[in-house]
Amino acid sequence: MYSNDIEVSVIIPYYNSEMTIERALMSVYRQTFRQPIEIILINDGSTDRSPSIVESFIRQHPEMKIKHLEQENSGPSRARNKGLDTAEGKYVAFLDSDDTWSPEKLEVQAEFMNNHPEVAISGTNYFINSDETTKYGQEENWIQADFKRMLFKVFFCMSTVMVRRSVMEKNRFRFLEGKHYGEDLLFFLQIVRRYPGARLSKPLAKQYKFLYGQGGLTQNLRKLLVHDLDNVRILYRQNGGNPVKIGFLLHKCLFVYSFLKHVVRLYKSRKYRKPVKGV
User: Fold this and answer.
1) Domain stop point among 156, 181, 207
2) Interval 72-117: pLDDT, tens
3) How many domains are contained in the chain?
4) CA pair distance 71, 184, nearest whole angstrom
5) Same domain, 101 and 223
6) How far apart are the C-alpha atoms of 195 and 142, rounded to whole Å?
7) For the chain: N or C, fewer Cβ within 10 A?
8) For residue 228, what pLDDT band results from cuts at 50, 70 and 90?
9) Enclosing domain of residue 244
10) The Glycosyltransferase 2-like domain covers which part of the protein (predicted)?
11) Does residue 279 lie in a domain region?
């Protein structure tokens, strides 16, 4: 059901996030955006103190519209889908429980989406581990994030993304449940196959995690490779009714490219592997 009051629904799934969830919530609270928003928190079966921290935040901020949902531990895809199913806003923004937003994030991004009604999904550049000297790209204002480009390059991370909810509902765009690596990229690609996307050049979020995962680095990179290839297979099968198709040759090239990305990730992981800064 659509609401005339809510401009942006903020979806935050969390699992055992007692060390970071309050920091994420405070970054939403400090937004300069003056239109009504709602926060949708989905507890993905946490066993630590994070649910009580969320409830404490809700009590301290009764002026904010906050929905606190629960589910058995099923992964972020199902949690985000649960959030999408209950969202009321014109736009939906996603925030991971261990990341934060710059204060102007929603204001800048919602204004961009309002000024570009053809854009169904937008993201922004971002900082890594609060290092504000590390930027992704120096382009002017924004660049187009289209399907073919995003097959070869990830244009934004989950915590920078804002989508137009009318497009999500019209097409029933959802995250593929049961997929634990690469589910975000597959979600992005399914949207930009049919609608324009954009990446704002200004960094408006901070990602507080190792770039390619903290525990079992090589194992995580191998999983990312497997799921990159799985995404290619899924997209290759999902060509019905879509004007942009992955041809057989491109399909094979993407397999080779995914292996090359794996090598690059191994190299970059050594470069960016830093301790996560405290809350």
Assistant:
1) 207
2) 999 999 999 999 999 999 999 999 999 999 999 999 999 999 999 9
3) 2
4) 20
5) no
6) 16
7) N
8) low
9) 217-272
10) 9-169
11) no
Which among 276, 205, 147 is positioned nearest to 10, based on CA atoms? 205
Who contacts 22 (Cβ-Cβ below 8 Å, separation ≥6)?
53, 57, 279
By DSSP bridging, strand 8-14 and strand 91-94 are parallel
CATH number, residue 121: 3.90.550.10
| Alpha-carbon torsion angle 134, 139, 144, 148, nearest 10 | -70
Domain contains 78: yes
Question: What is the distance between the alpha carbons of residues 192 and 200, in angstroms, rounded to a whole number?
Answer: 15
Question: At residue 131, what are phi and psi to the nearest 5 degrees?
Answer: -85, 100
Whether residue 190 contacts residue 241, with contact meaning beta carbons closer than 8 Å, is answered with: no
Q: How far apart are CA 257 and CA 263, in angstroms?
A: 10
Last-in-domain residue among 167, 186, 207: 207
User: What are the two backbone dihedrals, phi and then psi, of residue 251, each rounded to the nearest 5 degrees?
Assistant: -55, -45
Distance between CA atoms of 43 and 119, rounded to whole angstroms? 30
Distance CA 41, CA 95 (A): 10
Q: State how far the Cα of 5 lies from the Cα of 161, in Å rounded to an integer.
A: 21
Query: What pTM was estimated for this model as a whole?
Result: 0.79
Cα separation, 249 vs 228, whole angstroms:
17
Is residue 142 over pLDDT 80? yes
Is residue 3 domain-resident? no
Cβ contacts of 94 within 8 Å, gap of 6 or more: 10, 11, 12, 80, 158, 159, 161, 162
Give yes or no: residues 16 and 153 share one domain. Answer: yes
The answer to whether position 23 is within a domain reads yes
How does residue 156 score in pLDDT terms, banded at 50, 70 and 90?
A: confident
Distance, CA of 142 to CA of 125 (rounded, Å) = 10
List the single range of 58-67, 73-82, 224-233 with lowest mean pLDDT: 224-233
Using DSSP's 3-state secondary structure scheme, residue 176 falls into coil
